[in-house]
Amino acid sequence: MAIDRSSSAGVRLVRHEGIDRIYHWIMAVAVLALLATGLLPKLGVGFPWVTIHWVAGVVLAVLVVYHIVRGLAWSRLRLMLPGWRDAVDGVREFASLFSRIAAPKTGKYAPAQKVYHWGVAVVILALVVTGCFMLAKLDTPFWQRNPYFLDSSTWGIVYVIHGYAAMILVTLLIMHIYFAVRPEKWWMTRSMLRGWITRQEHLAHFDGARWPAEEVAASAPSEKTTQQHSTA
Amino acid sequence: MELVRVSTNAWGQSEVLGAAWDPFWVFVAAGAAFVVVHALAMAIKQARTSRTA
Fold first, then answer.
1. What digits encode the pLDDT tens for the residues A160-214?
2. In the list A8, A42, A158, A206, which could disulfide-bond B21, CB 3.0-4.6 Å?
3. B21 vs A43: CB contact, 8 Å cut-off?
């Protein structure tokens, strides 16, 4: 089906750049691998999980560092920082669930998404920091174990933080997957797979002044076909 | 339900070993409860919207 570029509906706008989508999906695989290898043995499913767990943990730590650097260096942090308008929008968004009040148009990220992001950030940072300490208890090709790196009572605190952060992450993951598969959110899930949203979706959900999304540079094949037909 | 795992060390002192795993199902239930409540709220909202449309 050819896209009609004369109407705004056919125009595609960039929501997630390719590098951000790659980051998101590698992180998803790492987190799922970490939760499976970390929690299944505690639930009685036995398998050699330690190597997969620490390697996935190191991958996650590298991704977190990359994400922080990219957020700071490319001035993308401001898109995720909460402001006073988010508080107002958040109340309206919540009220829209239970009343006829329309959901507000937001910046690139809705207030609930910002709250979720910062919640996940705290939990993942807690996991990564405590996980880095726990690497000292493992023999790997790169270092030898040193279980006396911390005293035993401090190890207890490290393990408590790591365990509870993992369990909180399970709750957050259930919520995240639930929103990703809800039919009215598929356009957003598609944007994490393919990178773009339509102009119509932008107009329906976002405040253009707060997030003026850019058009996708490369035309879709169907658009090229339309252009070829029109010039023939 | 215990929140942490505790053992006794060589000197007879109690020592925290780590998180207990019994609360795991509480966190799963919390996620499931959120999903159910939100799905219900959305279903009620859609029913109300389609009635008025």
1. 999 999 999 999 999 999 999 999 999 999 999 999 999 999 999 999 999 998 8
2. A42
3. yes
* Residue B35 three-state SS: helix
Bridge partners of residue B15, in order along the sequence: B7
Residue A151 is classified by DSSP as -
Instruction: State residue A6's pLDDT score.
Output: 43
Residue among A159, A168, A184 minimizing CB distance to B27: A168
H or E element that contains B5: strand B4-8
Instruction: Report chain A's C-alpha Rg in angstroms.
Output: 22
3-state secondary structure of B15: strand
Query: Which tokens belong to A3?
Result: 């896209």
**pTM recorded for the entire structure:** 0.88
Round to whole Å and give the CA distance between B41 and A98.
7
Which backbone phi and psi does A46 adopt, to 5 degrees? -90, 135
The C-alpha atoms of residue A76 and residue A69 are separated, in whole angstroms, by: 10
DSSP lists the bridge partners of residue A196 as A14
Is A157 in the B-facing interface, judged by CB distances under 8 Å? yes
Which residues, 6+ apart, have CB-to-CB distance to B42 below 8 Å? A97, A182, A184
pLDDT in tens, A78-97: 889 999 999 999 999 999 88
